[in-house]
Amino acid sequence: MRLTGPLAAAMLAVVLAGPGAARLPAAPALPALLDVVPLAAWQGELRPGDLVFRRGNGLWSGYFAGASGDEGFFSHVGLLVREGGRWQVVHTEADDRTGVGGVRTDSLRHFLADAHGVAVVRPRLDPAQVARTVALARDRRWQAIPFDGRFRLDDGGEAMYCTEWIQALMLAATGEDIARPRSHFGRIEIISIDDLRLSARVEPVFDHRLATNGR
Question: Is-above-0.70 flag for pTM?
Fold first, then answer.
C-alpha cells in the first residue's frame, strides 16, 4: 500500500518523530533490548561518528520501517559521540503532543531504553572527516535546528527530521552525501532510514533485533 497527500504526511510524522510517537494499546511485553544484548558486550566495537539506529515502538513504526527500504525494520537514527567517557547519541525528534522538537543528546542507554532493535553502521570517512562531523554535531547552530514536522527537503534546511539532519550534517562536514539515492513516500522525496543504513558509503558494525509483535 502506498499513501499520498495529508494522510501520508501525518503518518510519516509519527514514525520519524522518534520515541515520542503515539503508542499502541498494550501488547505482549517484549524483553528489554539491553537485557538481551547488554551494552558491555558490544559497545567496545563503537567509534565516534558511527550511526546508531533503533526500532521504536510507535504506532506507525512498523509500517514506515517496512517502507523505508529493502530490509526495513528500524525507525530512528542518531550520531554517536563520546563525552565524559560515555557514549552519547545526538539526534532530532519531536514531542508527540505538540509536534515541536529539535536536536538533543541522550546517553546511548537512554536512546535504546524502549527499543526493539539496534543497528550501528560506520560511514566510510577518514579520521579528519569523522572529527569534523563530531565537532559539527556539537555546534550550536546545528543544535538549534528545529524538527521538521512537514518532512520537506526543499526548505533550505530551516528545519530537519532525523535522517535529514544526519545526512546534512555529514555533507556539511565532509562533502560526502551518504544518502543517495533518495527514497519516496508516496509523492514525497524523503531520506529514509535505509537510505542511510544500507548506503554504499557505510559499513555494518552491529545489528540485533527483537521480535516486534507485529508492530
Answer: yes
In the chain, DSSP finds a helix count (H) and a strand count (E) of 9, 8
Q: Give domain limits for the chain.
A: 5-21+42-206
Which residue type sits at 24? L
d(CA 205, CA 49): 12
Cell, residue 62:
512498523
Read off the pLDDT of each residue in 166-175 and give the average, rounded to a whole number.
97
Burial group, residue 170, by CB count within 10 angstroms (0-12, 13-18, 19+): buried
- pLDDT, tens digit (0-9, with 9 covering 90-100), for 26-65: 445 678 999 999 999 999 999 999 999 998 765 445 555 6
Q: Which fold has domain 5-21+42-206?
A: endopeptidase fold (from Nostoc punctiforme) (3.90.1720)
